[in-house]
Write a structure and sequence with these properties.
The structure holds two protein chains of two kinds. Chain A is mostly helical. In chain A, about 70% of the residues lie in helices and about 0% in strands. In chain B, strands 1-2 form a two-stranded antiparallel ribbon. Classes of the chains: A mainly alpha, B mainly alpha. Chains A and B meet through helix 2, helix 3 and helix 4 of A and helix 7, helix 8 and helix 11 of B.
């Protein structure tokens, strides 16, 4: 990184203090949440953890929406988030119902115990 | 916005039917409970009729909502959804509560509303169809997200409740988890598109992309959206669940899954691609946007990144689906892989787009996709209806089992001609044999791709059609052969639900009949896929909005 770039960054106040969180901060946080959720979903085998990982991905999208809404000075993003929360709640209720259904049969929360379907 | 409610009559009819079904399914009287299926069928049928009659053509919708592209596909898509849904509903008879109802009839136990699933099952069916219809007339990312979720959330439960076996539950959970993941991916994509443009309205997104170019943030959003929706259409990176879920669910529900989420996914992909590429929206320069609808020669293609991505997805989807289908012995798994392959075929139409010669059907990829959805919906309903209409007579455990392997179908034309022949006809049609509907579905995909110069893709499509012929012929010839020695013991009988067999026969009749009337339907698909219903706009837009640009010049 050249001296010019550094001084340019310093002028724009980088690294910013918490009081000056910019759009980029929010987007990076939401991207991290999304990626963590995705990795967790693909690697963990506990059904509840897997479900929480998809919730993490949903909420990552929510953070991005709110941040973009503020950035564009537009309320659509926040409206969208309300709908996302509603859908996420509906999914949560379904997930728990399905998980309870499986748990009653095999007394286990691991996805590995359910491998009847293969071919 | 409130005017748009007037275009939602089909959805309103479906919603009313849903509410009635939810209440009636809990009645203590058997006749009332039994009538739920009839009410549901009335709902889907009246939705189809209402879509055909009351949904105005694209021009009028555009005049109200300002939606500029693909509005004319709404009546066509909704009519086709309603019609195929009615066909699918016929196959659903007796899916849930079969053992309970038998016990109640015998007087072993009395009706218990808490144990009954009938009301929920039909309500979920109708909710899913409502969501699918709402997908067709989405003009906003929020609307599209909610419609996609309304389509898919009920299907997870339907899979889980469709059989009493553990397999169905496992399939439901698997489907739900991967579905939630897919939903999160396309939701994140929607969020990024919103971030790049500052609006969730598809029309405004199209204008912003056309004027300002597509930023990398916006392109990432579009790619993530397509990737997430690939789950719904069972395309390659997100296809792993398909064979397991189709195998675990009851055959009639598998048939439902092969049509409903797939159609929702394709309608959404068309909407998103319409917003990104195929630049039919030339930005307004102080004049009404309605005046400036015109295809530009270079604007008829998708952005290169998106085109390449879809190209790879399409080629892989076709190949993976067909090759793996070859290796299957289970009928449902084979059909699941072939359903993956069919998604690949349809993606070819998406890649081609409306084409430069948007007037002719042969060059219009979007029209080809819309027509293929109809033909696939009918053929697919027929094949799965036959599977649903057959079962093994109850053995020692007293529970009838569904048939599984291809050899179970042997001799079907002799033992059950009303099921065997529909199976043969629908399989040959899925394969794309000339006089049948499937051929007329596939042909426009070929011609559109050739006219767009996508020669490598046409080669992939051709090779894959040949591979598909191998396993579809295996499936089609099984019913024609002599009855084999049945090693499995229990004989194969027709399930005691006549509507399932009726659905198979109706599908086969449609496969032949619609092929005869194919030209008319293709005309319908073509006008559904045309952006510029120029005259319709001209005649319906109030004078204040009408701009003095000669639209006939623009359209040609």
């Amino acid at each position: 990184m050249t001296h010019g770039t550094l001084s340019l960054l310093a002028q724009t106040g980088f690294p910013a203090s918490m009081a000056q969180a910019t759009l980029a901060h929010y987007v990076v946080v939401s991207l991290l949440m999304f990626v963590i959720g995705l990795i967790g979903f693909l690697t963990r085998r506990n059904l509840i953890i897997m479900f929480l990982c998809t919730e993490l991905m949903f909420q990552a999208a929510g953070i991005a929406l709110v941040a973009f809404g503020r950035f564009h000075l537009d309320y659509t993003g926040q409206t969208f988030v309300i709908f996302v929360l509603t859908v996420a709640a509906a999914e949560a209720s379904m997930a728990l119902a399905l998980i309870v259904l499986l748990f009653r049969r095999k007394e286990s929360l691991s996805a590995e115990d359910w491998q009847e379907l293969k071919g | 916005m409130i005017e748009r409610l007037a275009y939602l009559w089909p959805e309103i009819a479906l919603f009313i039917a849903t509410c009635v079904v939810m209440v009636m399914g809990l009645s203590r009287t058997y006749a009332t409970r039994k009538a739920t299926a009839t009410i549901a069928a009335l709902g889907t049928f009246s939705a189809a009729v209402l879509s055909f009659l009351t949904t105005p053509d694209g021009g009028e919708i555009e005049a109200v909502s300002g939606q500029l592209y693909l509005a004319s596909m709404v009546p066509y898509a909704k009519t086709l959804i309603g019609a195929v849904a009615t066909l699918l509903l016929l196959t659903m008879a007796g899916t849930v509560d079969r053992a309970e109802e038998a016990d109640i009839a015998k007087g072993v136990r009395s009706f218990d509303p808490l144990r009954s699933n009938r009301a929920e099952f039909y309500a979920f069916f109708l909710f899913s169809i409502t969501g699918l219809m709402l997908c067709a007339d989405a003009d906003d990312l929020i609307w599209l997200f909610l419609a996609l979720e309304l389509t898919s959330l009920p299907t997870y439960i339907m899979v889980a409740m469709s059989t009493a076996r553990n397999r169905g539950r496992e399939a439901g959970v698997k489907y739900f988890f991967l579905g939630a993941m897919g939903a999160a991916v396309f939701l994140y994509g929607f969020a990024l598109i919103y971030g790049a443009v500052g609006s969730t309205n598809l029309n405004e997104i199209a204008v912003a992309f056309a004027t300002g170019g597509i930023s990398s943030l916006g392109m990432l959003g579009v790619l993530l959206s397509i990737l997430g929706i690939c789950f719904k259409i069972a395309a390659v990176p997100m296809h792993f669940y398909t064979p397991d879920v189709y195998e675990g669910a009851a055959p009639q529900v598998s048939g439902f899954l092969a049509f409903v989420p797939k159609t929702a996914g394709f309608l959404s992909i068309l909407l998103i691609c319409g917003a990104v590429g195929w630049n039919y929206v030339i930005p307004p320069d102080g004049v009404s946007p309605l005046a400036t609808v015109m295809p530009s020669a270079e604007g008829t293609q998708l952005p290169e990144v998106l085109r390449l991505t879809l190209w790879v997805i399409a080629a892989l989807t076709m190949t993976v689906g067909n090759v793996l289908a070859l290796l299957q012995t289970s009928v449902k798994r084979m059909l699941a892989y072939s359903s993956i392959a069919h998604s690949g075929y349809m993606l070819v139409g998406v890649i081609v787009g409306p084409g430069i010669a948007a007037d002719s059907f042969s060059g219009n990829g979007v029209a080809a996709v819309l027509f293929y959805l109809l033909s696939y919906g009918v053929m697919n309903a027929g094949v799965f209806a036959v599977l649903a209409a057959l079962e093994r007579a109850p053995g020692r455990d007293g529970e009838p089992r569904e048939i599984e392997t291809i050899s179970d179908l042997k001799g079907l034309c002799r033992s059950h001609p009303m099921l065997g022949w529909p199976m043969v006809i629908c399989c040959l049609s899925l394969l794309g044999l000339p006089p049948l509907l499937g051929f007329f579905g596939k042909l426009p995909l070929f011609t559109a791709a050739i006219r767009a110069g996508e020669i490598p893709l046409v080669l992939v499509l051709g090779v894959n059609s040949a591979i598909a012929a191998c396993y579809y012929l295996k499936l089609a010839f099984a019913p024609l052969t002599e009855v084999a020695d049945d090693a499995d013991g229990d004989p194969i009988v027709a399930a005691p639900f006549r509507t399932r067999a009726a659905a198979a026969v109706i599908s086969a009749a449609c496969v032949i009949g619609l092929a005869l009337g194919g030209n008319l339907l293709m005309q319908g698909a073509r006008s559904a896929a045309s952006y510029t219903e120029a005259d319709a706009i001209k005649s319906r837009v109030p004078q204040a909005n009408a701009a003095p640009v000669d639209r006939n010049v623009a359209a040609h």
